[in-house]
Recover the amino acids of this structure.
């Protein structure tokens, strides 16, 4: 029989790519993770891993087992949700991660209402891609993030959509707006860090306008981006709720914001209460 606890170790390795990173996510030592993986390979009767230096990739058998592990994990979450629902489960604590403007606009107002229902939110500031990692690692229960690639690991619920605005330094010739992005082809740019999906949005919008942005400065903090632009370091594109700027001419790029939860938890009454309130606040 395959030990389901070892499947969790294999999933962490698939998510993080190295034994060291998987061990950190699981709060185990690298040695313990290696031992668990070796035991799992013995139980499975197939090689599951291909080792290339520090990084590890999955064999076809490993990928197949991860797919089954995802199903097992979802069913275990669903079983827990059913048990909690049986015991009413309408009060308790929910850990949530969100980027700063979503905390301001949605999470904080929802927190005040939910507290009156004996539901406590534990809030963590994290960019969308980081909150997804925290969700998959089991460190939080809800991630407020940008619309994410399809996965069988979590379920998403739409909250709101916001356009990107152009952020210009004071006195810029185009500050009256709206701004045609092609007019910014020769500017220096301030963008988010590699790996942040908002950077992909900016680069795609510029590509559609016929140029690649000349990136001079990077930050995932929109207050820092705004300060750099104000200091004349360049121009930027930012979601409207993060930084108020000048509208983009024509159809602007959009950020579609969702609440993501691990698949199998959507029927938990506590989660339903939180998701419903987040949605109501977002609509207002």
């Amino acid at each position: 029989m395959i030990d389901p606890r070892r499947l969790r170790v294999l999933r962490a390795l698939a998510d993080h790519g190295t034994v060291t990173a998987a061990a950190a996510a699981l709060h185990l030592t690298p040695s313990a993770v290696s031992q668990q993986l070796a035991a799992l390979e013995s139980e499975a009767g197939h090689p599951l891993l291909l080792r290339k230096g520090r990084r590890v990739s999955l064999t076809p058998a490993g990928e197949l087992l991860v797919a089954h592990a995802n199903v097992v994990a979802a069913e275990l979450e669903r079983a827990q949700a059913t048990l909690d629902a049986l015991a009413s489960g309408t009060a308790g604590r929910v850990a949530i991660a969100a980027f700063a403007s979503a905390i301001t606009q949605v999470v904080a107002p929802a927190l005040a209402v939910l507290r009156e229902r004996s539901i406590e939110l534990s809030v963590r500031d994290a960019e969308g891609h980081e909150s997804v990692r925290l969700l998959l690692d089991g460190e939080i229960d809800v991630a407020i993030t940008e619309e994410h690639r399809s996965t069988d690991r979590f379920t998403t619920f739409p909250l709101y959509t916001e356009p990107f605005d152009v952020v210009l330094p004071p006195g810029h010739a185009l500050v009256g707006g709206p701004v045609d992005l092609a007019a910014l082809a020769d500017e220096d740019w301030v963008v988010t860090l590699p790996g942040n999906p908002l950077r992909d949005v900016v680069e795609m919008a510029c590509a559609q306008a016929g140029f690649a942005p000349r990136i001079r400065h990077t930050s995932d903090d929109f207050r820092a981006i705004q300060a750099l632009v104000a200091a004349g370091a360049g121009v930027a594109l930012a979601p409207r709720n993060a930084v108020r700027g000048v509208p983009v001419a024509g159809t602007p790029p959009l950020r579609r914001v969702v609440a993501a939860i691990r698949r199998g938890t959507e029927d938990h009454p506590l989660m339903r209460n939180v998701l419903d309130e987040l949605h109501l606040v977002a609509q207002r």
